[in-house]
Amino acid sequence: MDWQERIIIDPKILVGKPIIKGTRLAVEFIVELMAQGWAETEILRNYPGITHDDIAACLKYASNILKAEKIYPFQLLQA
Question: pTM, whole model, 2 decimals?
Answer without folding.
Answer: 0.84
